[in-house]
Amino acid sequence: MARSSASSIRRYVPLLDWGRTYDRNALADDLVAAVVVTIMLIPQSLAYALLAGLPAQMGIYASIAPIILYAVFGTSRALAVGPVAVVSLMTAAAVGQIAEPGTDQYIAAALTLAFLSGGFLLLLGVFRLGFLANFLSHPVIAGFITASGIIIAASQIKHVLGIEASGHNLFELLVSIAQSLSQVNVFTAAIGLTVTAFLFWVRRGLKPLLMRIGFGPRMSDVIAKAGPVAAVVLSTLAVWAFGLADRGVATVGGVPQSLPPLTLPSFSPQLWGELTAAAVLISVIGFVESVSVAQTLAAKRRQRIDPDQELIGLGAANIGAAFSGGYPVTGGFARSVVNFDAGARTPAAGAYTAVGLAIAALFLTPLIFFLPKATLGATIIVAVLSLVDFSILPKAWKYSKADFAAVCTTVLITLGLGVELGVTAGVLISILIHLYRTSRPHTAIVGRVPGTEHYRNVLRHDVITDRRILTLRVDESLYFANARYLEDRIYDEATQRPDLEHVVLMCPAVNEIDMSALESLEAINERLNDTGVTFNLSEIKGPVMDRLERSHFLEQLTGRVFLSQHQAMRALAGDASDDSAADMIVLPAKNPQGK
Amino acid sequence: MARSSASSIRRYVPLLDWGRTYDRNALADDLVAAVVVTIMLIPQSLAYALLAGLPAQMGIYASIAPIILYAVFGTSRALAVGPVAVVSLMTAAAVGQIAEPGTDQYIAAALTLAFLSGGFLLLLGVFRLGFLANFLSHPVIAGFITASGIIIAASQIKHVLGIEASGHNLFELLVSIAQSLSQVNVFTAAIGLTVTAFLFWVRRGLKPLLMRIGFGPRMSDVIAKAGPVAAVVLSTLAVWAFGLADRGVATVGGVPQSLPPLTLPSFSPQLWGELTAAAVLISVIGFVESVSVAQTLAAKRRQRIDPDQELIGLGAANIGAAFSGGYPVTGGFARSVVNFDAGARTPAAGAYTAVGLAIAALFLTPLIFFLPKATLGATIIVAVLSLVDFSILPKAWKYSKADFAAVCTTVLITLGLGVELGVTAGVLISILIHLYRTSRPHTAIVGRVPGTEHYRNVLRHDVITDRRILTLRVDESLYFANARYLEDRIYDEATQRPDLEHVVLMCPAVNEIDMSALESLEAINERLNDTGVTFNLSEIKGPVMDRLERSHFLEQLTGRVFLSQHQAMRALAGDASDDSAADMIVLPAKNPQGK
């Protein structure tokens, strides 16, 4: 009893598993990784808070408690949890509909959003509903991330140029930017554009350069990753030294010097009602992003993650964010890869990162008073443009027009109507396309390949058929979306054949017959019977047969169930006539009878 | 050119097809059917208008123009279009949210609902989107019809007892009836309960009685069908003769004596916005009911209906209703069966019925001044209780728990929260259950049956496996909802096998690989490669292979694609070791390794 309850605690608290074998080597590796990640996270966290429309310090707070809670409850050993670009954008979109950025209501709504999102993730995890995230198809995610990256980049142009601009979609945003171009602040633009160019160069050109002048590849990588920190330091110094804040360069300004504060989400039912849909979307998107990162990293070390436990880890992280001055968080791609590459071996690395960030929140915040928002905007632009990848479009076009339609819908609606509608439309269209495709399954009228016991499509092969027997092979499970199509198909074929005596449905690819399909089979049986035709089945799979035996269908069936199609043909041709061979005709390929 | 345009007109106007061969015999049969149906339709139409909260004559008007338009554009030869119970209830639910019954706004909203519903059906028909109706699974429809029948019957109790009662769901309605029981009008209740008992007896006992006293079965049937007419005549006479209208018996009262008036639906965008969702639901439910009736009847004579053309026929009928004082209509089960049994051979029978109803509207309406509403309520109760059929519940429970869940949800939500939410919830839950089921497809680790080239599930058979090779057979098409599950499954198995060198995915039941699944296969390939394991495929179907060849997957594949599983095993076992036979082990059935 005690043992089983201990193992059930361990199931929900993976820390108890890896914690027991933690040693000095793992500690050293984790500490190194934590230092690297902390340096990278400081500017990134400030920037994403800006993107979410929140005070800069909330980005740091959102990385501290969540990272520790994820370390306790999460299963990935390298995932780094905190603010990420897409979730920050979605937070801004959701909270922006309720309150003005900069107000207390705005902050309260962001905390509440994190709380609801965490609660929803926890619920999904406890009920093991992680599979719901599968309804986001890969092309839809790819399209959504690309479109979000474009919107995020566009939303930061105003910070880089020092202008006012706003809009509910990409089009409005770009028009608003174009109209404000005359008000560009030259000092801001100089900093913003320089930093942007610098960061692009760091990303593309610095590492090869360092390696050419003799640094090792690992060291070059670490230095290149510190590029954004250099940009932050240099641009802050420039603003301070030249007094640019007085010349209209917007800076982060005063940030309270403190550990994450204890905050409370709102429990107003009205606010909950307004935020629930957004919380669900943010949770699902965040979960999908996080799980794919975690899976990629785990697979590299032949480790496993448990998606349902990940839900609990991310849920705890978000609830932690709600109570510690943060906003919705998830496992980020960039920071996790850095963590992994820097050698993090256990989730403890995340906890050390949290300590590093707490120290930063306590002691470094006065130093960023003069940090220009243009630098943060440039950091975001360079980070998200790496998410923008239109190669999904030609790839989808070539592989499948249906997937192409889903990507295009997602991209266009995300750009034109916003992130929430975009991802909802993407999910709906994927499901509709799937249902549409399976609602018209591939079917083939089959006949016997001469000299064999194989039955193949009459359109593709020269096969022998019998005009009294129609055999239809259906290459899909039978369920509500295609049940009626099957009826139509059989009646169509049956009405064209005046000599018809038997219909055989060949089911080698039918993995499931749901109740709608069962009723369609009953209807087919009955209606064929009204016209004096028997209805038979062949090659039904074991589990499907088990289920059919629990219904009354087999008792009502006018024909029989045959183990193989060849048995069916021999028995039915024999039933129909003693001289069956004479009735057999060889159909040429592409016979019009088969349509 | 001329010929193709003529055939394209014929496609949209089936009248041009059957009209050319119409002869005197068909005319005679159709006329007989029309008389029988007209007699049955008069009380039914009045009653359904009452159910919809509309003036009684609108039920008659709703049968005239629609029946003629359906005769021109519809494909079923026996379908009788007009007001039906469920659609009348849905009309009352939708319109009741916008206006008070008895007001002009209420009538205008009902006309507009018919117009929107007709427009939606036409759109679906022109774009050949009839398959959308397939998303209503059979158990959901059965549950919805049963729950609607209960609500309709409960809603008529007030008319039968002569009390006031209302409620937005079954519970409220029953409470309201219970609270008003003290106000029962004894005269109304006497008529209502007598008629109800009489009609039940007519339905159950009259036909056998008539046959016992010497009438032929056909004649007995016709007399029994006229039972409601007798109830209408007798109860009207009773009210008139005993002056019961002055004693509180509610009657139909003055009804304008006219042909259907020319009416106009509203074109107010606000009203359209409020009614669109209801119009969509009514269209879909009406279409599903109508098509299943039409298909059943057509199959009995080896005729065919075209569901997409049916959409156009029903769309035209509803638009006709909107312009001629009607409300949403569809093909009704009871009236169509009567029409068919009475011998209707072409849609012209419907047109003659329309003429009969027009004559009734012109000359018979004064006679129904004293027709008690209690009689109409009783007619509805007896008609709809035949729709109530709980046998779907045990049947679904036995056959499939998932379908059972869908039925229960639909029934409970329809009863508790109303018809519109009920059917929406039913559709959503069917789709969710389908996605859930296919998101965890049946998979099996397979091994070779000794002495054969067959590969079967290690859990069910004593088979030979190789610890360096893992073969997983997946029994479902691969698409977004199960792509991640497949990844999980393969990584789970792979991490348990330290000696693993090759993974083979056996795909004989895979009818489709969508782009999400393709990317999952790419991820599996890459992640297995990270751990030094090759990824191979076997027994891929032709169309699936065609599609894979359009991607870069096959170039990246670390392993190979094998035509058969046996080829795969021979090649991979040979690759791995020259002494492969020594590595083969015979697993017992139910081996825990396979889970």
UniProtKB/TrEMBL annotation, chains A, B:
Task: Report the superkingdom from the record.
Answer: Bacteria
Q: Which Gene3D superfamilies match?
A: STAS domain
SUPFAM superfamilies linked: SpoIIaa-like
TM annotation in the entry: 31-50, 56-73, 80-99, 105-127, 139-157, 177-202, 222-242, 275-299, 311-329, 349-369, 376-392, 404-433
Mostly located where? membrane
Task: Name the keywords, alphabetized.
Answer: Membrane, Transmembrane, Transmembrane helix
Q: According to its UniProt record, where is this protein located? A: Membrane
Residues covered by the STAS domain: 459-572
InterPro entries this protein is in?
A: SLC26A/SulP_dom (IPR011547), SLC26A/SulP_fam (IPR001902), STAS_dom (IPR002645), STAS_dom_sf (IPR036513)
Membrane topology term reads: Multi-pass membrane protein
Q: Which PANTHER family match?
A: SULFATE TRANSPORTER
Q: Which NCBIfam families match?
A: sulP
Which protein are we looking at?
Answer: Sulfate permease
| Species name | Hoeflea poritis
Q: Which gene encodes it?
A: sulP
